[in-house]
Amino acid sequence: MSCPLCGPPESAVIAAGVRAGVGTLVFVTAVVVFAIARFAWRLWTLRENNG
Amino acid sequence: MRWTDHKTVGLQYGLTAVFFLLVGFLLMILMRWQLAWPGQPLPAWLAPMLGEANAPGGIMLPEFYNQLVAMHGSVMVFLAVVPLAASAFGTYFVPLQIGANTVAFPRLSALGYWLYLAGGLVMLASFFVEGGAANSGWTSYAPLAVIAPAGQNFWLAGIILIGLSSTLGAINMLVTIVQGRAPGMSWMKLPFFVWSQLVTALLLLLAFPALQAAAVFQLMDRVAGTSFFMPSGLVIGGVPLQGVMGGGNPLLWQHLFWFLAHPEVYVLILPAMGIVAEVITVNARRPLWGYGLMVGAVLFMGGMSMVVWAHHMFLSGMGTSLSLFFQVTTMIISIPSVILVTSLVMSLWGGSIRFTTPMLFALAFLPMFGIGGLTGLPLGLAASDVALHDTYYVVAHFHYLVGPGTMFALFAGIYHWFPRITGRMLDERLGKVHFWGSFVCMNLIFMPMFVVGLMGVNRRLYDAGASYALAQPTLMWQTHMTSAAVLLGVFQLPFLWNLVQGWLGSGQENHTKGLSGTGLRYNPWGARSLEWTEALSPIIPKSDFLDLTPNTRPDTGTTVAVLGNWLLLASLTMFFGSLFSAYVMLRAGSLEWPEPFAIYPWLETALLLGATAALGDTRIRLIGAHALGLAFVAVKLLNDAVMIRKGLLPSATLQLACWFTLGGVHAVHVFAGAMATGWLAGPSGALKSMDYPRWQARLDATRRYWIFLCIVWLAIVGAFFI
């Protein structure tokens, strides 16, 4: 019987695929979030110009 | 009335969401009836409405019960609560609170509403097609959803439309807040409600594209016979599934679905917190405690909510390393939640509290959210989730967050802002009947679910477990819960009557408690934020988007058009990133992957690069870019048709499935770009002579879009051919 958390042992390749896919999704998200954070930082540095 | 006015659109969202709320509620009553009295006929007046196909002899079929489960969740989340929390309140009140005269893109705002309405109606229409509505839960897990009847296609089409609507709404909200703040309305002076809407919009912008990508894949699986989510060797009812190539990964759907659906929880809860913060400060008559801390917490919470999604999947066999990562992030995200609730509670300290109806709902939100949040912790840890997963405990947990949690906050918002919308108060006595009835009934429904769940009863049994020995002691709770649910419906009648009465103008008028000395009719609470005080403060200058649009704001360093354009590209990056992640997951998870199947698509690549290079500010260059873009689409279609004639069908291999889907979706975007370029050359050309900077902004936005499409195309070609 396979472990409910790990899945059956023969699924090592599938698990590797899942890790790669999730890693790609996290990477893309990180890039976009970084770009947004960079813009947010610019907003913060310019905040005194309001008014 | 102007259809693009943000107040009109906000009201449209609100009224439509309340309609869907009633639909979702009625679906729930049908479910609860079945759970309380499984196998017994429905009431004589109700059974004919369901029809003999769904309830022969008045006894509900399990298949129809599954449709109710799926559609109750889908309607409540996608069509009722989120549009009410984010779109209705946000579109109506954010511009007022920041001192803007409208939203950044009024026509897009209206379009967003109509897309949402269309998506909702498409989803509901599925009840009338053969086989009925979607029946695989609101999560639409594959492979179950892939082999479901045609109603699932309607569900998927609805999701794509609602996703488009959410994306447009999110871009609009973000640009409005960043670019539309009145002079002097600096970041740390923004009402907390605006911050909550800002983070909500960011989540919608970044998370919804993943579900749209997943919906495209599932449509391909269902319509074109691909196997993105279909594993090899699938056996249904003891019979091997024929005609499916297999090799796909059901976990792919779960990852993409929860990538949206977990942030969606925060899309529900953050506007709710913003409303509660608003109501508490007004009725406790003191400012928020720890405003800066709350802003930091809501930003941190928004960011973290993007990386907790797989705590819904501990039992999917995704592996212990991923489980560990998502357990840690889930525990971390509980910290800002506690900060927010603590700050709201502390805001009451030393206040002069008025127990008005909105305040009662806002106060009730705090413990209800607390119960929902704290009971989520055991579900966020894999060890305890093994026992609790898929039991009624989970149902109780998330309903405490959405039912007495978010819904109470939304009721608070309706009672609080109704006078601002109509100039009339809602009746306080009816409001209190509504509150106390709802408060008691909500707890009577959901608290016993914890007990039933802890006793191990699975949440998806259509007979509530009547055929299982372990569930026997819990069956009487099911009857009590149904009685409480019916009573909850009865207690919504005073609310609906109150709304109608107040709307038609015969409700209790209360002009005497207006802001001290002002005589302002619609400020009965003595609130101080801009949406209540704008009319009496002519010295407060408003932001006018007509002036702002082409100009760079000194405190943001950007324009409305540029920011909107970049946000669209961010959303598209998430969309294509999700498609690529799927490709990576399938390719890396396959033991063998075929060689490239065709010659390198030189011609398409040249046409696309040519279209991008041709783009310029002369009419001939724009027409050239338009023609080259259309030529790209034509050649792509031709190539795909040739491949299909040669037997290289999307259903043949996972590689071909990815190629046709990624390439097809990209081609749709190229077609949209070509049409936009043609519009610049044609109808929009007149603007060039009248207002060159505005026209130039459109051209720059189009150029960025084309460059983005080139990058995506090169990535697709690179992934498949290099």
Structure characteristics:
A: 51 residues, 1 helix, B: 722 residues, mainly alpha, two-stranded antiparallel ribbon, 67% helix, globular
Would you write up a description of this structure?
The complex is a heterodimer of chains A (51) and B (722). Helix content of chain A is 67%, strand content 0%. The radius of gyration of chain A is 20 Å and the shape is rod-shaped. Chain A contains 1 helix and no strands. Chain A has 51 residues and is mainly α. The termini of chain A are far apart. In chain B, 67% of the residues lie in helices and 1% in strands. Chain B is built from 22 helices and 2 strands. A two-stranded antiparallel ribbon of chain B has the order 1-2. In chain B, α3 runs parallel beside α12, α12 runs antiparallel to α13 and α17 packs antiparallel against α20. The longest helix of chain B is centred in the N-terminal third of the chain and has 37 residues. The N and C termini of chain B lie far apart (57 Å). Chain B has 722 residues and is an all-alpha fold.
